[in-house]
Structures are given as structure tokens and as C-alpha cells.
């Protein structure tokens, strides 16, 4: 190395100082993503790491994780002054936890510059130290990993870094065969993927599995996350030195690294390194010459451990959802990070809906329906006849009557007027959605923006009040707009209006602010302009090439869409797979024989018998096809059932929930699969025997539900999951055997179905939806065991009673509304 490492510098001091440095664990958080994935909200008062994730600042999760990992001194490297102020405020509240120092430099443009600045200031002294991104949410115990890295580095000074990975589902696209349902309908290609993985990456990691067998972390020999590459090239020397090289495409990079100070020195020596992963890590593991190699190792998280990065709005929503589902326990909404518990107290209600109850000033209309998972902050008002599902609502929000919110994130101070609708969207601080407006999927409405009455935002629109001059972009393209040119000329593509503080819009000091507004997008009474990503000068080879500019802009827009909530990546992954296959067919292997032997085709990547191209067959509500995961020949539902049956009575149900979730992630299963597996386990535990009377059957079910009902309710996040319980019960009743014989005759099926409803495991809507599907099958002439079970008189009597109850409830609600009027 051209520069002396920090550990050797510290070694020149006294033994007491060495022991001190070794004992005091330091950590570095890079609190800037150095990307535009969070724009345009990052132009407002909300820097990317200051976004509220389930009403907690994102950066606070990472700092709290460091404190829990035993970090005594933390360095937060940032560019934005707002981040510095927030961290200083956090330090004042949590000064007893650890020492925090802000390293702020507005000139930093990439992660490499940030690490070089740390090295120049000579701040990091501990060996090892933690290096994290500021968007990490994790519950990992790092003590064993730190100790292993420390011992490995003592034995081999070139072992300078350990990266943490979490097993998740790799992306893949399968085209199922044509379905003959007498209508000639062919099913569309289907993508399987993990929502925690960014759509712009395609990570393949090559690991030395021989060390894994010995109980040690595997060394990394290949790190490639470029989706544009159709093949991976591996030096022949690696294949010779490591015959057990295993290529994995099912690993998620957690953004948590354990580093020796030599890492900082490497960045100072290689001054052109900008990206930690695609440049430093990829180059380090690719070094062939012995003696120049810097060895990097991988630590694979256990199933009960959770770690993920919030890299864009799509992963933002996925991590939020996981926290609401308690997959990152003890990081859950009712166990807030340090400092928040003094202000708020969230209480979990049914279907994973959390409500803030410490301040106790939130009002929800009695006729409104709130479905989980979701959150409702303090000092909120929700009117009558609202339908809110899977939505996180911040503090001081006002939601009028007849509003529909689905899978949205509503930040503090938002106002949504009567009859408005929002789907899969971000509504940032103090924005306003006026009466009858519709915010389409993938939209981001920036701070202080106003969506005019009865306006409909185009899908994946991003609205901001920040001018082009303020953001440093001179891109005037309006191609993203769905409106026609005549309307644009009539309304005007953009006007500047002076708007006061009404309708939101940042802090109270904005009395008169000139806001550039696209009225054809947000309406005559709206506020804000359409934001589009800018095209950098180095994106095109010819600055005068207009077609090149338009092509680059289109690519940027498509990337922006793929990073948005509600985006379906099936077409993206299909196109990516075609391009990779086409490149392999056109170019073949390299003319060089050595390169031929060293090139690994993506289609041949195999991990422990799990083929990259294996189809993943899902189960819909009425299908008899079993659900299979990524591992060929494995029945996912059956495996989930076995996990439940192996659960030891008396153990915390939280442990079983974590285990089910881990298996779900590894096999790309669904919550419906988990609910079906748990239901089948309950039926087995009831020990149903031939001749069991319906009364004894119900008694056995109620006895089991005392233990299993909380888990079933946790797994049922909506109608589909509750309907999956009914389908599991239905499949068992027509499946034969002792259980099927008892469930399939007499009133037994009806009594079990009614008991699940009475115990509030399943609601009215799933039962009625299931009944509607069976009636549709009868109408088209189907006649099978499933239909015969449905047509049993006791089942029909229960459905008739349930439908009557539903109608009475509707009449009572109408009467209450009439009386109130």
C-alpha cells in the first residue's frame, strides 16, 4: 500500500492506547445517497435520509442500530445542512448512547470522496469499524461478525472487509403455457422478485464455499450488479484456486460493512474510486495477482435476521410494509427508536393497524374502514365513509369524507378533501389533494404542492414547487405528460404564481413564494410543476444530437418509473432477459479459449440445486395447482405447514412468525401461502378422527384458535389472505382421508367456517367473495367436488344468514347517516 494504514499508525503509540482503540468501536454512516432516486422531495426541506419511514426519520433507524451494535463513536458524513442539524438534535436527545460527530462537506459528490475526506481528517481509529449507508434498517446482532472479522484480519492483513448479505428471491421471468378456458386467453409472463431488491440491479456474487463448510465466512471472488451484462467473466486462476466457487443471484446487499482502516487508505490511494460497490469492491475481488489482493468476505444473515436498504420509493414502501408486519422485530412501530418513545406511543390494533394513543387526539369516522397494515399518527382527522388500506398516515393530517387511500404514504400536515383518491403514492409534507382529485399509482406529490379539484395525475408523475433554476436543471421536456397539445396551449404549459402559505407549502415563513406551476397537470387551482430527471452532459456522445437527448431522457424516465411504488417489473425483467440472451447468441463466448472456460452464463447460475430459470407457480384462490417455490419439486405450502407443526407449544409466537417470513422470502412465497400453511397445521393439530361429531369438531377448533388465532390474524393482511384460509379448509374437505371425510359431510364444513368467522379470524368480505367465485363457476357449468361442497344446504344457510347480516349493517349505517343529517 502506498499509504500507511490507521491501525499501524495507532500501533506506534503505547499499548494502553492500542487497547483503547480496539475497545472503542467506531462507525461511519454515509448520510447521502449521491443519487436522484428521491427527487423531487430531496429539493424540499426533506433530504433523502430525512424522509419519514412509518413516522420515524429514516436516518434515525440507522443511528439507533449503531447504538444497539455497541458503537461508542459515530461519524455521520453528509452534504446537506439539514442532515447536520438533525443529527446534532438527535445527539442532544441521545447523548448517553454514544458520541456523534458530523462530518459535513458540501463539495462531496460521491461515496469515494466521502471516505477520502474521512481518511484526510484521520478520524477513524478503531480496527475494525462499521461502514453503513444512512438508509439501512436492520436488527442484526453484529458482535459475532465483528469478532470473526477481527480474528481473520489478525491472521491475514489483506482481509480488510466483510460485507453483509441477506438471502432473498432473485428476479426471474417465466412464461406459463397457454390456458384453455374456452376463451382462448393466454396468460401473461410473470415476474418473480423480491420487493427489497432495487429493480436497477442484478447482483451476482461468487463465493468460495469451501470456507463455509469449515464454519467461516466465504471469501468473495465475484461481485457484479450490472444488469446490462449478459455474462460474468471469471479469471481461470480463480477456478483453479477455488474449485468450489458458488455463484449466487439470491443475495441482497444490506449496505452494512465491517472494515479495517486499510479500506480508507485504499480510497485515498485510488483517488478515482467513486462508487464503493461497483468500483472498489468489484475491482478488489477481481485482482488475480497474489500479494496485491485485498480479500473481502461475505457474512450471510440468518433467517431470523433482517436488513435492507431504502434505495428508492419502491424499496421505501417495501421496508415500511415489512416493519408494519413486524418482520424486523424488535424494530416495530410499537417499539420506537430512542427519543421517539417520549413523544409518541403506537398501539397495534387488528390487521396490523397502529394508532398513536399517547396524545390521544386523533378522530376516525365510525363509518370509515381502516385496513392494515398501516399507521395513523397523532392529531389526525379522518371523516366518514373513507376506505383506507395499507396506508401510513403522519401527524396533523386532515382527511375528509369519502376519501380512498390505498398503499399510500401520507406525511405530516397533508390535507385530502372530500371524494379524493390516491393509490400507491407519496404525499409529502403539507401538500393538498382537493375534492374529487385522483393521484395515480407511482406519483410523488412534493411538499406544499396542491392537486386541483377533480384533476387526475398521470401515473408515475412527480410534482414539486421547486423551480428548475433552484434544482439546477434546465430540462423543459413535457413528453411525460399524457395531456394533448391543444389543452397545453389553452391552459399554458407553465405559469408562475405568487402563492401564500395557504394549502401547505413548507414552513410558515413562506408568505410570498413564486411557484412555477403546470396548470394542465395540477389544475387551475393547483400548485406545482411536473418534475423530470435531467440528462447529464456525459450521457450522450454528441451534445447536439437531439435524438440522443430524447433517448437518454426516455431512459431516465423509465428508470424513474421502475423505482416508483406500484411499478410492475415484469416487462422490465422480460426485456432484460431477452437482451441478455440475445447478447449471448450474437457474441457467443470469447474467441480466447481461456475466456471461454472462465465465462459463466447467467442461465447456468445454480445455488444449492436452485436453478436460476426455475418457474415459480403461484396459487390463486380457486386453483388446485400446488404452490412451488424457486426450488424445483418443493411444495411451499406444505413446507410452511411443517414449520408450524414443528413449533414448540409455549414458545413465543413471534419466533414462528419470523421463521415463516424467512422461508417466505427464500422461496418467494406470499402471505396467502403462509396463511394456508398455518391453517393446514391447525387442522392437523385438531386430531380429527372418523366419526367426530360437529360439536366436538368445533370444540377442538376453538381450543387450537386460542393459540393460533393471533398468528392467523397477523398473516391476514387483507381479503386475499383470509380467503386463502377458506380455500385451505375447502381443499382439505374435498381431499379425502380422515380429515376430509369428517369435514366434507354434514354440517361440519359450515360449522368450522362459521367458527372462524365468529372468532374474527376471517371477516364477512372474504367469505362473500369466496361464495361469489363459486357461484360464477356454477353459472358457467362447472360441476366438481368443490362445487358440491359449496352447494351443501348448511353452507348455503350460513351464507344466507351472513348476507342478511351484511344488509342489516348497511341499513343501520344508512339510518345513522339519516339521523345525523
Automatic annotation (TrEMBL):
Keyword Cytoplasm in annotation: yes
Domain of life assignment: Eukaryota
InterPro entries, per the entry: ARM-type_fold (IPR016024), eIF2B_epsilon (IPR051956), LbH_EIF2B3/5 (IPR056764), NTP_transferase_dom (IPR005835), Nucleotide-diphossugar_trans (IPR029044), W2_domain (IPR003307), W2_eIF2B_epsilon (IPR044123)
Main location: cytoplasm
Subcellular locations according to the entry: Cytoplasm, Cytosol
PANTHER family in alphabetical order: TRANSLATION INITIATION FACTOR EIF-2B SUBUNIT EPSILON
Protein name: Translation initiation factor eIF2B subunit epsilon
Species, as recorded: Seminavis robusta
Amino acid at each position: 500500500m502506498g499509504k500507511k494504514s490507521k491501525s499501524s499508525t495507532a500501533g506506534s503509540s503505547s499499548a494502553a492506547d492500542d487497547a483503547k482503540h480496539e475497545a472503542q468501536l467506531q462507525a461511519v454512516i454515509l448520510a447521502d445517497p449521491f443519487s436522484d432516486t428521491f427527487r423531487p422531495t430531496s429539493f424540499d426541506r426533506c433530504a433523502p435520509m430525512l424522509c419519514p419511514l412509518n413516522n420515524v426519520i429514516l436516518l434515525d433507524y440507522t443511528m439507533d442500530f449503531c447504538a444497539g451494535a455497541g458503537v461508542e463513536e459515530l461519524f455521520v458524513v453528509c452534504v446537506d445542512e439539514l442532515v447536520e442539524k438533525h443529527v446534532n438534535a438527535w445527539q442532544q436527545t441521545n447523548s448517553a448512547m454514544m458520541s456523534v460527530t458530523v462530518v459535513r462537506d458540501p463539495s462531496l459528490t460521491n461515496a469515494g470522496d466521502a471516505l477520502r475526506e474521512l481518511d484526510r481528517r484521520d478520524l477513524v481509529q478503531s480496527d475494525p469499524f462499521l461502514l453503513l449507508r444512512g438508509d439501512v434498517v436492520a436488527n442484526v446482532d453484529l458482535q459475532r461478525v465483528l469478532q470473526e472479522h477481527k480474528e481473520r484480519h489478525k491472521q491475514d492483513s489483506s482481509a480488510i472487509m466483510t460485507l453483509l448479505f441477506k438471502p432473498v428471491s432473485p428476479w426471474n421471468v417465466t412464461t406459463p403455457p397457454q390456458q384453455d378456458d374456452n376463451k382462448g386467453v393466454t396468460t401473461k409472463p410473470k415476474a418473480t422478485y423480491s420487493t427489497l431488491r432495487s429493480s436497477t440491479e442484478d447482483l451476482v456474487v461468487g463465493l468460495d464455499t469451501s470456507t463455509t463448510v469449515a464454519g467461516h465466512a466465504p471469501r468473495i471472488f465475484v461481485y457484479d450488479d450490472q444488469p446490462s451484462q449478459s455474462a460474468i467473466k471469471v479469471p481461470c486462476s480463480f477456478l483453479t484456486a477455488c474449485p468450489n466457487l458458488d455463484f449466487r443471484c439470491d443475495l441482497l446487499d444490506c449496505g452494512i460493512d465491517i472494515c479495517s482502516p486499510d479500506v480508507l487508505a485504499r480510497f485515498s490511494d485510488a483517488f478515482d474510486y467513486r462508487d464503493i460497490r461497483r468500483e472498489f469492491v468489484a475491482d478488489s475481488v477481481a485482482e488475480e495477482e497474489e500479494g496485491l489482493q485485498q480479500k473481502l468476505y461475505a457474512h450471510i444473515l440468518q433467517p431470523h435476521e433482517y436488513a435492507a436498504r431504502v434505495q428508492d420509493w419502491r424499496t421505501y414502501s417495501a421496508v415500511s410494509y415489512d416493519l408494519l408486519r413486524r418482520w424486523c422485530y424488535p424494530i416495530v412501530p410499537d417499539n420506537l427508536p430512542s427519543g421517539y418513545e417520549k413523544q409518541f406511543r403506537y398501539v397495534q390494533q387488528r390487521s396490523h393497524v397502529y394508532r398513536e394513543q399517547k396524545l390521544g387526539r386523533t378522530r376516525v369516522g365510525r363509518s370509515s374502514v381502516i385496513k392494515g397494515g398501516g399507521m395513523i399518527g397523532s392529531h389526525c382527522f379522518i371523516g366518514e365513509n373513507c376506505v383506507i388500506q395499507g396506508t401510513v398516515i403522519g401527524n396533523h393530517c386532515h382527511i375528509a369524507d369519502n376519501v380512498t387511500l390505498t398503499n399510500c404514504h401520507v406525511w405530516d400536515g397533508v390535507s385530502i378533501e372530500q371524494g379524493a383518491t390516491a393509490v400507491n403514492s407519496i404525499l409529502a409534507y403539507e401538500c393538498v389533494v382537493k375534492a374529487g382529485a385522483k393521484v395515480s399509482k407511482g406519483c410523488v406529490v412534493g411538499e406544499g404542492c396542491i392537486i386541483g379539484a377533480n384533476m387526475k395525475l398521470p401515473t408515475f408523475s412527480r410534482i414539486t414547487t421547486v423551480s428548475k433554476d433552484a434544482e439546477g436543471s434546465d430540462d423543459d421536456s413535457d413528453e411525460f405528460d399524457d395531456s394533448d397539445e391543444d389543452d397545453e396551449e389553452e391552459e399554458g404549459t407553465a405559469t408562475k404564481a405568487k402563492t401564500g402559505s395557504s394549502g401547505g407549502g413548507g414552513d410558515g415563513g413562506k408568505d410570498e413564494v413564486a411557484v412555477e406551476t403546470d396548470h394542465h397537470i395540477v389544475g387551475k387551482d393547483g400548485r406545482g410543476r411536473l418534475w423530470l430527471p435531467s440528462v447529464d452532459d456525459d450521457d450522450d456522445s454528441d451534445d447536439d444530437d437531439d435524438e440522443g437527448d430524447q433517448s437518454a431522457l426516455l431512459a431516465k424516465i423509465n428508470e424513474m418509473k421502475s423505482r416508483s411504488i406500484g411499478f410492475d417489473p415484469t416487462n422490465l425483467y422480460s426485456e432484460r432477459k431477452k437482451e441478455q440472451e440475445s447478447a449471448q447468441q450474437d457474441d457467443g463466448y470469447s474467441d480466447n479459449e481461456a475466456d471461454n472456460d472462465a465465462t459463466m452464463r447467467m442461465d447456468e447460475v445454480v445455488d444449492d440445486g436452485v436453478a436460476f430459470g426455475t418457474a415459480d407457480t403461484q396459487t390463486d384462490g380457486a386453483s388446485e395447482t400446488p404452490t412451488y417455490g424457486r426450488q424445483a419439486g418443493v411444495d411451499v405450502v406444505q413446507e410452511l405447514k411443517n414449520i408450524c407443526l414443528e413449533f414448540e407449544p409455549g414458545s413465543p409466537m413471534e419466533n414462528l412468525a419470523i421463521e415463516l417470513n424467512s422461508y417466505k422470502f427464500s422461496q418467494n412465497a406470499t402471505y396467502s401461502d403462509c396463511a394456508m400453511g398455518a391453517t393446514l397445521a391447525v387442522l392437523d393439530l385438531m386430531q380429527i378422527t372418523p366419526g367426530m361429531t360437529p360439536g366436538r369438531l368445533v370444540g377442538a377448533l376453538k381450543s387450537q384458535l386460542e393459540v393460533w388465532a393471533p398468528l392467523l390474524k397477523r398473516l391476514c393482511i387483507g381479503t386475499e389472505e383470509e380467503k386463502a384460509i377458506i380455500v385451505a379448509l375447502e381443499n382439505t374437505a374435498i381431499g379425502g382421508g380422515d380429515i376430509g371425510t369428517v369435514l366434507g359431510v354434514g354440517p361440519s364444513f359450515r360449522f368450522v367456517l362459521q367458527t372462524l368467522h365468529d372468532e374474527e379470524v376471517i371477516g364477512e368480505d372474504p367469505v362473500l367473495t369466496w361464495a361469489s367465485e363459486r357461484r360464477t363457476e356454477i353459472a358457467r357449468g362447472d360441476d366438481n367436488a368443490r362445487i358440491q361442497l359449496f352447494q351443501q344446504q348448511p353452507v348455503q344457510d350460513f351464507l344466507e344468514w351472513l348476507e342478511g347480516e351484511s344488509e342489516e349493517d348497511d341499513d343501520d349505517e344508512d339510518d345513522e347517516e339519516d339521523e345525523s343529517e
